C-alpha cells in the first residue's frame, strides 16, 4: 500500500456527513424528549419524527476490537450511526422503533452496560493516570473502574435526587472537570520535589520554573547553577515538575487521592459552583482502592438520604451547611480543609450564623 | 504474537459490572507489542504505586507544532515496546457523531501503525490514539489527512474546540453548536497547528445554560446559547405534568432562583423580565415551556484548572451576541482577544489569568466592549480605582 | 486651683455607677420592648418595671454648651441619666412615665430632633473631615448635615422597609463602618501623590511607605534619596500619604466623594455584607453637595419603592440583581465598578444567569 | 472675646432640620479662641475644597504612649490658635452611660483647657475632646484621672473597647456586654497606654447577632453573644402578632435564612437543630420568641478598614465560649493571639492580615484551637495544602 497523499490544515470533516437522516431532517426542530429507561430515551420533533437513543457505558479506553464491535452493532440497528457523549458514553441512534428491543438485547447479551440517562450517575470523566501520564499521582482508569463497579446500579436503574457527576484527575493539573463536579477524586502529592541538580541546567528553564510555583517557594541557587526550594512554602502541588523534569515529586508512600465535592457546571436553580475539599488524603491502595470507594459511597448515600428531589450534591450541602455535611458523613474536618491559598479569606466564616 | 505479562493486580479490575479498561488493554495486547508492554508496565505502576512515564519531548508531524504528545517509559529496558509511546490527537467531529465506516477505517489504521488503544474521547474532545512510535507519525498523519481528517491541538495553541449535541438532538439549543464548533475549528487551523500563543486556548460551545459540555468550567472561551424573550407556556401541558405527579409549587416554582414564577394550581405564570434563564423549569417541564424571542449566545472568558492562582470559572464578557453563520462578529472579537493576550501574556499564562492580572478595563477597552453590570456578580467593594486622563476630563 | 493628683492605668469608671436605678434593678432581665413613636420606645422587664427611651439626634460634634443643656434636661426628667448610642444619638432614660410628655415637649421646644428608632434612618456614623483630619478628601460633618437635612423626615416619622444605616468617611482609611453600610459616602482622590523630595528623608520611613502601597507602585529612588511612584499602578488610595507626610495627595479639583451601598453588619435574614460601589465619583461641591444629596435620595427612593418589608438595601439589591439596581436608579455602570483589586475574580459573573 | 470670622459657606449649614455642627462650633467659638480659629479655618477648607491640617507629631502625657492625636494647622499664620489642635481621647464608660454630674464636670474642664468642642463619641468609642495645645495635656490628664477617668487608646496599641447596650436595656443580650467590656479594658491597661503591638487592636462586644455595635465590621476581635438551645415559643403571643397584622408566613417563616420554621396558621414550629441563630424571627416577634439554654459568645477575628489588602469582616475562630466573669479563658486566648502577632506581625500589619498571610493553621495551632467547620463558609477549593511531619506519620 503506497503512502496516501498528506493534506494539512483541513480540519475535521463536516459534521453533516455523520448525522443520521432523521437528525438531518429535524435538525434544530426537536420538541421534547422522554426518558424511557435508565439507558433509553426518545426525542420527538415538531414534525412528529422520533429518534431513540440507547446509551451504553464505555471505559473510554477502548481497543479497536471493541470499537469495531460497536460499529457492527450500529450498522445492524442504526444505519451505521453512533455518537459519543461529552462524558464518554456511546450512544446508538435508532430511527426505527422496532430496532430498539433487538438492539437492547444484543447489547445486554454482549455485556454492554446500558444506562446513565436521567437522574442517575453517568460515566466518570477522567484522565490518563498511570496508563499514559508522567505526572500522575494516582491512577485514573483504575479508580473509575472500582467506583463505577460499586455504583453501577445507579448507572443502570436506581435513581439519585438529580444527576451526580463524578470526575477523576490523576494530578492537580486536573485534566477533567474535577474542580466543578458533584464528587471528584484528584491525585495529590505530600512531599517536596526532589531536585536533580545535575540534569537541571539541561532540562529546565529557570524563570518559568520559578514562576510556575504558586507559592513562590522556588528560587535560583546560583552556586549550584540550580534551584532551591523553600520546604516551608511548598505545598506539593507538583506544578514545578510539570515544567521541569528535574524536580520529580512522585512518592509511592505519600502520594494518594483527595476527594472534593459539591461542584457543578449547569446554571439550573443555582449558579455553577466549584468543588470543595471533603477528604484531604487517602493513600493509594491499588488495585481497588477500598478506602476510596467506601468514602464515595458514604457521601453518595448521605446525599441520597438527605437531598430534596432535583437538588445536586452542592445544592444539598449548601442548604444544610458544610458543618452538617461533615457531621452527617462522619468525615473529619482538618486543618487542610481551611483554605490558605489565593482567595482564602473569602471562604472564612464572616458571620456567627452556623449550626452547632 | 506479542509478549504476555502476568497482571495479577490488573486482573482484579476485570471483575465487577462496569466495563473494564483492563479487558480493553488485554484485547489490544493480544494484537500489538506496544499494547502488551503498556499493559505490563501498567501492572508495574500498580505494584510500585507510581507512574513509570517520563516527561515527553517534542515530537510531531512535518509543518505542525502540535497534535502529538510525546511519551517515554522510564523503564524501557523492561518494556522496550513502550520506550516511545506517543499519543496522536485526531480532531473529532462536532458533537462526536460518527459513522461505522469511519470508525472501522480508523481502527485499521491504528492497528497497523499504533497500539490499538484509543480514548473516545480525551477530556478536551480529541479522538485520542494512545501510543505509537516516532517513526510512525508521518504515516498515521498521511492516512488520516488523506481521508479528510486532521490533527487536533496541543501545546501553546488553540485546542480542539468542542460542543454539546445541541440542535442535532436537543430541544433546548438556542444556537447551532455543531456549526459554530465546525466553523471556529476551520477558521483557526493555523492557530491550532502552529503553537504561537502564550499558552493553550480552548473553546467550548453549548446550546443553553444546562451546559452539557462543562464549557463554563474548562474553556478559555465559553459560548453559551441563550435567548431574549418570553418563556412560552402551554398551560394544558402544565396541567398534565401536575396530573402526573409533578409538585409544581415545590419542584418548579419553589426552586426558581429568581422567584419569578407563580402557580395557583390552575395556571403557571412567569415574570420574564426577572427570569435569569437558568433552565430549571424548562428542563423539568420540557413539554410545557419553551423559550421564544431572539436567540444568541453569552460569551464568557477565563475558566481553567487550578494552576497557578486557583481554579476559575469563565465569566461574562459579552452578555448577548447574535450567532449567525459565518459568526464574523465572534471571530473578530476572538482575534482581538488573542492580540491583546499575545502582547501582554507571559509564558504559560492563560488569558483569564492575564485579565485578572491586568484588570478587566484594559481587556474590555482593547476588544471594544463596554462595561455592563451583567459582567459582574456585584460591583467592587474597596473604592480604589484607576482613572484615565480622559475620565478626568469628562 | 491646684493641679489635682494624676493617676495612671485606672481605666474608665465602673459602668454600674452610671446606670439608672431601674436598669440596675432589672439588669439582664428585660422581657420585651415596644416602639411608641419614631423617637420613643419602652422596655419592659420580667418584673414589670419599665424604662422609656427618648432618643434625639446629635451632630456628634457637640459644644460644651449643648452637653450642659442635655445634662440639665436629664436632671429634670431622668434623674440625671443619659446615654449615647453607638450611632451617636443621645438617649434620655426615663423611669417615670409621667415625665415623658414634658420631656418630649421641652426637647421639641428647644429644637432637638427626636427620632431614629424603628425602621427608619438613624444618625450617620461619620468621621473628622476638614474639621480635624489631615487626610480628608472631603468633609464629613458637612455631608452628614446636608444628607440628614434632606432625609430628616425618615429620622423623625416616616418609615423605611427596614433600618437604613448611612455612613460617611472622609478618606479610604474609613474610620466609620462605610465598608458595611446600607448607603455610605467616602472621600476619594484621583491624582497621583506629589513627591516632596526635599523633605522625604527626614519625615518618612522608606520601607513602611513602600509596603503601605496596595499595588506596589512605590519604589526607592536611590539617586534622589527619595521615592518613585509608578503612575500607571497608582490608584490614588492615599495610603502612602498616611505613613509619609511628604507624599501629599489632596487635590481640590479632583478629590470628591464615592457612594457605596448594600452593606450591613447584623446577621438577620442574611449574613453581614460589604458595601459595593454605586457611584465612583462626585465632585466636592461644598457647602451643600447637591449632587450627593440628589443621588442618595434617588437610591433611597428606589429602595423604598422596591424593597419588601424587612429587606435591607443590600438584601433588596441581591434579590433584584445589581443589573436591575443600576437600571432602576439610572446610575451609570462604568469601568470603575468592575473590581481589579485583591479579590476581583470573586466578583466576576461566572454564570450566564443575569437579567437583561 | 475670641475673634470672629465670616463664614458664609458654613452658615449655609445652619439651615435645615437636622442639628447643625456649625451651630455647635459657633457656640464654642463664642467662648474659646481655639474654637473660633477652628471655625475660621474650616470655612477656609470649604472654600479651598481641601483640608488645612497637617500630619500630627507625637504628643502625649507622661508615661503614656497614646491617647492624644497630635494635629497642626498648615496655615498657622492665619489661624494661630489652632497651630496646635490636638485631640484627647477619654475612655468612655461601657455602653456610653453617663450622669449629668460627670458631663458637667467634663465640660468645665474642657472649657478651661481646650476648645470646648467634643465628639460624643468617636467612631472607636472614645469620648473625644477636640482641640487643645500641647502644654495643656498634663493638666487635662490630671483633672480627668483624679476624678477616676483615664485616656483611651491610639497608635499601635489596644484601642478603647466598646460594646452594645446589651443587658442594661435589651432583652436579647446573651452575655454581659458591659461587664466584659469593662473587664477587658481594665485587664489590658498597659497594652492600651503603651503602644507595643505591630499595629492597632480593637475589641467590640455585642450581646447577639443583631450586632448593634458593628463589631463584625470594625473590630480585630468581635465578641458576639449567642446561645446553644431552643428558641422558646409563646404560641399565644404568636397568635397576637398574627392578629395585629404580622404576616408570619411571609415576613417570618419566608425570611428565615435556614428555612427551619413552619407555621400553619395555628402554631409556629422551629427546627432548632437547623436554626443558625440569625435573630430575625426573634427581633420581629420579641414577645413570642426567646432563646433558651446555654449562653456564651462566638469569637471572631480580623475585621478592619480596606488598607492594605481590602476590607475584611471578622471570621469565626471559636464558635462557642462561656463568658463568665472574670473571663479568664477569653483573656488567656487573647494573650496567646497577641504573642503570635507580636512575633510575626510586620509593622502596620493587623492581626487579621497576618492570619491571611500566614494561614489559619499556624494561628489556630499557636492559640490551641481545633479546626472546625464553623470557622469556614466552605472548605477550600484547590487541593494544594501543607502537611506537617506529624500529619504524615499519622
Ligand atoms: C448527551 C449529553 C450531551 C452531549 O453532547 O453529549 C447530554 C444530553 C442531555 N442532557 Fe445533559 N448531557 C450531557 C452532559 C451533561 C453535562 C456535562 C457533564 O456532565 O460534564 C451536564 C452538566 C452537569 C453539571 O451541572 O455539573 C449536564 C446537565 C444536564 C442537566 C442539568 C441537571 C441539573 O438539574 O443540574 C439536564 C436537565 C435535566 O436533567 O433535567 C440535562 C439534560 C439533558 C438532555 C435531557 C437534554 C435534551 O433535552 O436532550 C439530554 C439527555 C439527558 C440525559 O442524559 O439524562 N443535562 N449534562 C451529555 C451526556 C453525558 C453522559 O454521557 O452522561
Ligand atoms: C489527554 C488529556 C487527559 C485525558 O485523559 O483526556 C490531557 C493530558 C495531559 N494534560 Fe491536560 N489533558 C487533557 C485535557 C485537559 C483539560 C480538560 C479540557 O480540556 O476540557 C484540562 C483542564 C482545563 C484547562 O485547560 O485548564 C487540562 C489541564 C491541563 C493542564 C493545566 C493547565 C493550566 O492552565 O493549569 C496541564 C499542564 C500543562 O499545560 O503543562 C495539562 C497537561 C497535560 C499533559 C500534556 C501533561 C503535561 O504536563 O505535559 C497530559 C498528557 C497526558 C498524556 O501523556 O497523555 N493539562 N487538560 C486531555 C486532552 C485530550 C484531548 O485532547 O482530548
Ligand atoms: C441603641 C442601640 C445600641 C447601643 O448600644 O447604642 C440599638 C438598640 C436597639 N437595636 Fe440596634 N441598636 C443600635 C445600633 C444598631 C446597629 C449598629 C449600627 O447601626 O452601626 C445595627 C446593625 C445595622 C446593620 O446590620 O448594618 C442595629 C441593628 C438592629 C436590628 C437589625 C435590623 C435588621 O433587620 O437588619 C434590630 C432588630 C430590628 O430592628 O428588628 C435592632 C434592634 C434594636 C433594639 C430594638 C434592641 C432592643 O430590643 O432593645 C434596640 C432599639 C432599636 C431601635 O433603635 O430601633 N438593631 N442596631 C444602637 C442605636 C443606634 C442609633 O442611634 O440608631
Ligand atoms: C477620630 C476617629 C474618627 C472619628 O471622627 O470618629 C479616627 C480618626 C483617625 N483615624 Fe481612624 N479614627 C477613628 C476610628 C476608626 C475606625 C472605626 C472604629 O474604630 O470602629 C476605623 C476602621 C476600623 C479599623 O480599625 O480598621 C479606623 C481606621 C483608621 C485607619 C485604617 C486602619 C487600617 O488598618 O486600615 C487609619 C490609618 C492609620 O492607622 O494610619 C486611621 C487613622 C486615623 C487618624 C489617626 C489619621 C492618621 O492617618 O493618622 C485619624 C485622626 C483624625 C483626627 O485628626 O482626629 N483610622 N479609624 C475615630 C477614633 C475616635 C475614637 O477613638 O473613638
Ligand atoms: S491530570 Fe495530571 S496526571 Fe492526569 S493526565 Fe492530566 S496532567 Fe497527566
Ligand atoms: S511542588 Fe508546587 S509548591 Fe512545591 S515547589 Fe513545586 S510548584 Fe512550588
Ligand atoms: S447544553 Fe443545552 S442545548 Fe446543549 S445538549 Fe445540553 S440541554 Fe441541550
Ligand atoms: S428559567 Fe429559571 S429563572 Fe427562569 S423562570 Fe425558569 S426556573 Fe425561574
Ligand atoms: S476617614 Fe480618613 S480623613 Fe476621615 S478621620 Fe479617618 S483618617 Fe481622617
Ligand atoms: S496613593 Fe495608594 S496606590 Fe498610589 S502610590 Fe500611594 S499608596 Fe500606592
Ligand atoms: S446587639 Fe443584640 S443584645 Fe446588643 S443591643 Fe443589639 S439587639 Fe440587644
Ligand atoms: S433565628 Fe433566624 S435562623 Fe433561627 S429560626 Fe429565627 S429566622 Fe430562622
Percent range for β-strand residues of chain A: 15-25%
- Cross-sheet strand order for the largest sheet of chain B: 8-9-10-15-16
Largest sheet of chain A: 5 strands, antiparallel
- The dominant shape of chain B is globular
What summary fits the major beta sheet of chain B? 5 strands, mixed
Strand tally of chain A is 12
Description of the molecule:
The complex is a heterotetramer, with 2 copies of chain A (356 residues) and 2 copies of chain B (394 residues). Chain A is built from 11 helices and 12 strands. Chain A has helices spanning 21-26, 64-78, 100-109, 141-156, 197-203, 206-212, 239-243, 290-306, 313-320, 322-329, 344-347, and strands at residues 30-37, 40-45, 50-56, 61-63, 81-84, 90-94, 166-169, 183-188, 218-221, 226-229, 256-261, 276-283. A 5-stranded antiparallel sheet of chain A has the order 1-2-3-6-5. In chain A, strands 7-8-11-12 form a 4-stranded mixed sheet, with helices on one face. The model of chain A has no long low-confidence stretch (mean pLDDT 97). In chain B, 61% of the residues are buried. In chain B, 33% of the residues lie in helices and 16% in strands. The model of chain B has no long low-confidence stretch (mean pLDDT 97). Classes of the chains: A alpha+beta (356), B alpha+beta (394). Chains in contact: A-B, A-C, A-D, B-C, B-D, C-D. Chains B and C meet through strand 10, strand 16 and helix 14 of B and strand 12, helix 10 and helix 11 of C. Strand 4 of chain C pairs antiparallel with strand 6 (117-120) of chain D. Bound molecules: siroheme (SRM) (4 copies) and iron/sulfur cluster (8 copies). One iron/sulfur cluster binds at residues 164-166, 170, 172-173, 206-208, 210-212 of chain D.
Secondary-structure blueprint:
The complex is a heterotetramer, with 2 copies of chain A (356 residues) and 2 copies of chain B (394 residues).
Chain A: H1 21-26, E1 30-37, E2 40-45, E3 50-56, E4 61-63, H2 64-78, E5 81-84, E6 90-94, H3 100-109, H4 141-156, E7 166-169, E8 183-188, H5 197-203, H6 206-212, E9 218-221, E10 226-229, H7 239-243, E11 256-261, E12 276-283, H8 290-306, H9 313-320, H10 322-329, H11 344-347
Parallel strand pairs in A: 7-8
Antiparallel strand pairs in A: 1-2, 2-3, 3-6, 5-6, 8-11, 9-10, 11-12
Helix pairs in contact in A: 4-8
Chain B: H1 8-11, H2 21-29, H3 33-48, E1 53-54, E2 68-69, E3 72-73, E4 86-90, E5 97-99, H4 100-113, E6 117-120, E7 127-132, H5 137-146, E8 162-163, H6 177-187, H7 189-193, E9 203-206, H8 215-218, E10 221-228, E11 231-233, H9 235-243, H10 248-252, E12 261-263, E13 268-270, H11 280-284, E14 289-291, E15 294-301, E16 315-321, H12 328-344, H13 351-358, H14 360-367, H15 389-393
Parallel strand pairs in B: 8-9, 9-10
Antiparallel strand pairs in B: 1-3, 2-4, 4-7, 6-7, 10-15, 11-14, 12-13, 15-16
The complex binds siroheme (4 copies) and iron/sulfur cluster (SF4) (8 copies).
